Amino acid sequence: MDESQNSVELGLSAGFISVKSTRTWRGIRRRRSGPFVIINRGNGLALDNGVQEHNGAEPIMWRPHGFEPQQWVFIRTPHWGEYVICSVGNKLALDARTTSDLSRTPCMWARHAEPHQRWRFRRTEDGHGYTIASVLTGHVLDFPEGSGSRAVPHLYERHGDLRQQFLITSLTAGGFAEGG
Fold first, then answer.
1. Which segments within the chain are labelled E, that is strand?
2. In this predicted structure, what is the pLDDT of residue 176?
3. What phi and psi, each to the nearest 5 degrees, are found at residue 47?
4. Which long-range contacts (CB under 8 A, 24 or more apart) does 89-92 make?
5. CA dist 74 → 84, 105, 137, 151 (Å)
6. Which of 46, 87, 140, 152 makes a 20 to 30 Å CA pair with 64?
7. Which CA distances in Å does 117 have to 3, 103, 114, 120?
């Protein structure tokens, strides 16, 4: 397996934690893996559940801190290469919604693993990040240009910009080997 170096600094109320690993997430062999922090390469903000615990709540982007609202587990589905992304903090799954409208916002919903809750990860061309695509439509997680903290992500056509690329950083030990 090739190795890439990844470094993330998490800002905490008591200071900063620097996480440096020579191995990043590469796929899952186990049924459930994580927790991970999902950090946007375009703005450096982390996917966060916004401390919301109800079905239909929208995730937000927030300064990385690594606490439960920003921790996500990936649950392998019976469909090869497809995962459900669940928040550790509220136990809800990232959901692309049942429509195919461009620029729709994802929400969080009780886990059921229908196509609108399944996601595929694709390595970026430079090999340092991933795009996260909805199985339902193929639209990828994206952050509107110029968006900052508390912004809600949306789903958009893949264009390769850094706003559609994510670092997936393990809060435990290193990365994982590819697996379906």
1. 6-12, 15-21, 32-40, 46-48, 60-62, 72-76, 83-87, 93-95, 107-109, 119-123, 130-134, 140-142, 154-156, 166-170
2. 38
3. -70, 130
4. 89/49, 89/51, 90/49, 90/51, 90/52, 90/53, 90/57, 92/49, 92/53, 92/55, 92/57
5. 6, 20, 19, 23
6. 140
7. 30, 17, 6, 10
Domains and CATH numbers, the chain: 6-170 (2.80.10.50)
Question: CB atoms < 10 A from the CB of 159, how many?
Answer: 10
Q: Say if CB 46 and CB 70 are below 8 A apart.
A: yes
| Spans in the chain with pLDDT lower than 70 | 1-32, 173-180
Can you tell me the distance from the alpha carbon of 16 to that of 137, in angstroms, rounded to the nearest whole number? Answer: 38
Q: Which two tokens stand for residue 142?
A: 């994206």
In this structure, what DSSP letter does residue 101 have?
-
The pLDDT value recorded for residue 163 is 95
| Number of neighbours of residue 68 by Cβ within 10 angstroms | 14
CB 97 within 8 A of CB 116: yes
Cβ-based neighbours of 35, under 8 Å, separated by 6 or more: 71, 72, 73, 88, 170, 171, 172
How many Cα atoms sit within 13 Å of 126 on the Cβ side? 11
Establish how many alpha carbons lie within 13 A of residue 48's alpha carbon, considering only the half-sphere containing its beta carbon: 18
